[in-house]
Amino acid sequence: MKTQMKKELSPEVVAVEKHGAERSHLIRILHEVQREYNYLPEKALRNIAAMMDISLVDVYGVATFFRSFSLEPKGKHMVTCCMGTACHVRNSGGVLDEAKRHLGIEPGETTGDMLFSLETVNCLGACALGPVVVVDDKYYGEMTPARVRKVLKKVAEEEGRGQDDQD
To answer: Where are the beta strands (DSSP E) in 12-159?
Structure first.
């Protein structure tokens, strides 16, 4: 019975119970909640503020200060293209252009089917592998426009959604 009740709890309740309501745990809690929802819904932020006895303004302040948090729904799969100097000189711009073309979105946007979100970063710290693209925490090095297209197609196919119409 206890296990069944645990499954019914919202991700924010589970995260606060797991980490504790101390203010110093807020960032960890927000990360955990975002992992569950793929963004930070307003209702979750309100619940976190109430459970931790922190003002909603303070919770929003943290959620909007760090770029890793999003208040907007994100796609199931996050695609991150490195635009750092080492990647740039190896054609990361061409790789990004192909990702944009293939997905039909710009950096900071999400596909209409909520399958992909695209973002750029200044450096991923894997300069020797450049250009680098990260899809769902998996690093792909020495990317080319053709390789990024192949990776994105594979992810879509694994989800049962071919993207042949975008070739």
So the answer is: 77-82, 116-121, 133-135, 138-140
